[in-house]
Amino acid sequence: MEDQISFMKQFREISHEYREKLSEAKTPADVGDIFITFIHKMLVNVGIEVSNKAIEYIVFDPESEEIVKFEKPLYEKLTEIFKKSDLENIIQKMALTAKHRHMQITHDTDRTDMYRRHD
Fold first, then answer.
1. Distance (Å, whole) CA 74 – CA 72
2. Rounded Cα gap, residues 41 and 38, in angstroms
3. CA 75 – CA 50 distance, rounded (Å)
4. What is the largest CA-CA distance in the chain?
């Protein structure tokens, strides 16, 4: 059995700032932007060569069962690294955190709209 490569050290380097930025997010769109920015940052930190254009291939869908998706060509670049490391699990953990913040903002907005008085 092959040893798994661990990227927890790189995750810990960005996790505090990631959670802080998510907590400052005001809209669901902000959450998506922050998530994608930090996924890109994580990929760069672990040494994967990705351009700034690669963010176009990261899809955050908090309403879906598959919260994060990578489209070609980025997906093809990540497939092998996912097989031999914990990177996919780390990204899923980041996606869940973003999904919870997204739901929190959406829920708060729904409550605000529900109690708003219109004259």
1. 5
2. 5
3. 11
4. 68
Contact 14, 94 (CB under 8 A): no
Round to whole Å and give the CA distance between 84 and 88.
10
In tens digits, what is the pLDDT along the chain, a chain of 119 residues? 468 999 999 999 999 999 999 999 999 999 999 999 999 999 999 999 999 999 999 999 999 999 999 999 999 999 999 999 999 999 999 999 999 999 999 987 655 544 444 45
Total residue count of the chain as it appears in this document: 119
As a whole number of angstroms, the distance between CA 83 and CA 67 comes to 19
How much of the chain is in helix, strand and coil states, percent to nearest 5?
A: 65, 5, 25
Q: Compute the C-alpha angle 57/83/64, nearest 5°.
A: 45
Cα–Cα distance for residue pair 38/20, rounded to 1 Å: 12
